[in-house]
Design goal:
single chain, 321 residues, Phosphorylase Kinase, domain 1, Transferase(Phosphotransferase), domain 1, 2 domains, 9 helices, 27% helix, 17% strand, globular, disordered N terminus
Length: 321
């Protein structure tokens, strides 16, 4: 169990469970070393590993490194996630899971994969869309104040991405500010599908301890009490509600600013305390939206499609995505 870090880096990750949940239930052959992509002019471009020039490191973690890279011939900028050969087996399994899911997705609200490479020596690399502002967590750490108007715009895009994923039977299972990428146009993309799951059967179990426990819904810990007609997708909606609360309040909603609990304390708070709520200064529409996300009984939680009709987001118009 990882120790809780400083508040801005809250990362109560749980280890991947043993046995069947650690084994992906869909085939995960490594994709070919190039992927042909289509750009806005309807022409096709094939990106190879040799085409990419590393500019600098964007970040480290989880057994790999993310680089900002430039295409040598087109000067297009991408992000290259490299998982190193000596990474833990579970980490490499996660990257293969992510590859499989990214190859299935095509949504303006989900990060786009432009190529996957099996690098000599054992490294695996994914070339992805570059988002120049980093993550929502990055903005929060840098002091960005998230107004309701800004959050409604962000929320509309995340919900649209979740609606797409859920309609394709994909559950993210680790939605949080650090897994939502953003650019300078405030376009956001859902990313990091290493612990996601594809639902092959309606009754596939989804109450596993993968992801970040701070953002897990009550039924992930106690499905008998809070599961209702739980189908797995409702957990992503709970995580969205906590994410919006955190961005608005500037700190994780179950904690006082600067508080550093252990994961067991946090799990008990999620299961036994009332869901966190917005301060009095928030609008009634925003408060109601959060309540629709943070119903402890998962069967009462609104779906992504239902939430897109909520007054908090339904009138959002985006000029581009």
């Amino acid at each position: 169990m990882a120790l809780v870090r400083e508040r801005r880096q809250l990362n109560l990750r749980l280890p991947l469970p043993e046995n069947s949940e650690r084994r992906p239930r869909f085939p995960l052959p490594l994709p070919p070393s190039t992927i042909t992509t289509t750009n806005s002019s309807s022409s096709t471009t094939t990106i190879t590993a040799a085409d990419l020039e590393k500019l600098h490191v964007l970040g480290h973690g989880n057994g790999g490194t993310v680089y900002k890279v430039r295409h040598k011939h087109t000067s297009a900028i991408y992000a290259l996630k490299v998982v190193h050969e000596d990474s833990d087996t579970a980490i490499r399994r996660q990257i293969l899971r992510e590859v499989s899911i990214l190859r299935r997705t095509d949504s303006p609200y989900v990060i786009r994969c432009h190529g996957v490479y099996d690098i000599p020596g054992g490294d695996i690399a994914i070339c992805m869309q570059y988002m120049d502002m980093g993550t929502l967590e990055t903005l929060m750490k840098n002091g960005t104040k998230f107004s309701e108007q800004l959050l409604s715009r962000i929320c509309f895009q995340v919900l649209s991405g979740l609606e797409y994923l859920h309609s394709h039977k994909i559950i993210h299972r680790d939605l949080k500010p650090s897994n939502i990428l953003v650019n300078n146009k405030i376009e956001v993309k859902i990313s990091d599908f290493g612990v996601s799951k594809i639902m092959h059967r309606t009754l596939d179990p989804c109450n596993s301890y993968v992801g970040t426990c701070a953002y897990m819904s009550p039924e992930r810990f106690d499905p008998d009490t809070y599961g209702g007609n739980y189908n797995g997708y409702a957990g992503d909606i709970w995580s969205l509600g906590l994410t919006l609360l955190e961005l608005f309040m500037g700190h994780f909603p179950y904690l006082l600013e600067g508080q550093r609990p252990d994961w067991a304390t946090l799990m008990c708070a999620i299961c036994f305390d009332e869901p966190p709520s917005l301060p009095e200064s928030a609008s009634e529409i925003f408060k109601n939206f959060i309540q629709c996300c943070l119903q402890k009984d998962s069967s009462k939680r609104w779906s992504a499609t239902q939430l897109l009709s909520h007054p908090f987001v339904r009138d959002i118009e985006l000029k581009s995505t």
